[in-house]
Structure formats: C-alpha cells, structure tokens
Amino acid sequence: MTTITRTDxxxxxxxxxxxxxxxxxLRATVHTKCEGxxxxxxxxxxxxxxxxxxxxxxxxxxWVEHYWFEFVLAGRPNRVPWTEADLDADWRVGGETTLExxxxxxxxxxxxxxxxxxxxxxxxxxxxxxxxxxxxxxxxHMVEETARHAGHLDVVRELLDGVTGE
Length: 166
Description:
The chain is mainly α. The chain has a single domain (about 15-160), classed as dinb family like domain (Four Helix Bundle (Hemerythrin (Met), subunit A), Up-down Bundle). Helices cover about 55% and strands about 5% of the residues. The longest helix is centred in the C-terminal third of the chain and has 27 residues, at about 135-160. This is DinB superfamily protein. InterPro entries: DinB/YfiT-like, MST-like.
C-alpha cells in the first residue's frame, strides 16, 4: 500500500505554504481514511448512490487533480473519462482495479499537480470558460473539493466497517 505521511498544515507562513499545506494535508487524509479497507468494502456503496464508494471517491479525486492542474493550468490534453453521455464516469471503478492501485494513481497525480503549481505564480491566470482562473483559485478550490470528499470518506468508512477518526 502507498504510504503517505500526513503533516499538519502550517499555522504561519506565506499564502503558498498555507494553501499547499492544506491541500497536501487533505490529500493525505484521503489515504488515511482508506487505510486497512479491503477492496470488497472499498467498492461497496453504503449510501443510496451506487457511485458513493471509497474507491469511487479516490478515483474521482484523481481525475479532479488531473483536470485542474494538468488540463486547466498546464494546458495539457484532457484525459478525464467523463463525457456528455456519462458525466459520472470518473466515479466508476473498473472491475480489476484495486484500492491500492487507485491510491497509488491518486498519489502520483497529486505529485504532478504539486509540481505544476510549484512552477506557477499564485497570480498566474489561464483562460477558463470564457474568463480566467488563477493558480490561487485552483489551490483554494482543491482545498474545498478534497475536504468535501474527505468528509464523504469519513461517512462511507464509518458505515462500511465502523472505523472513525481523524
């Protein structure tokens, strides 16, 4: 299993250090929430939506990282699996994919995202949906997005096997 060390975000420092610290803390929280979870349980949907599985959340977050950092900020090809016909494809886990593989892919994507963000000024803007978006906004959005889904993982994990915690 991919080992990710969760470090508290800094309580002081410049904006980049604080934003990056929170994003990395939340990224590591996703790994923490999945520790010890079997592949079978990771695929089980304990809530009414069949897409809300631990594995599906990890897969979705991997593609969110790709979309915002590689595609939007770096202008690389968009490889997200969702389409107009299936807007939820980034939540659908393939039959042979393990939770370990999903977490490894997520960690690798986060490393790419971190590298892209580090090479850009927080005020750097790119065209987005008829306007612009800054690196600062993307980092703040990733705090929101990752925190929201880490919260989903809290609930899913507790419903699956009773495990709670930070």
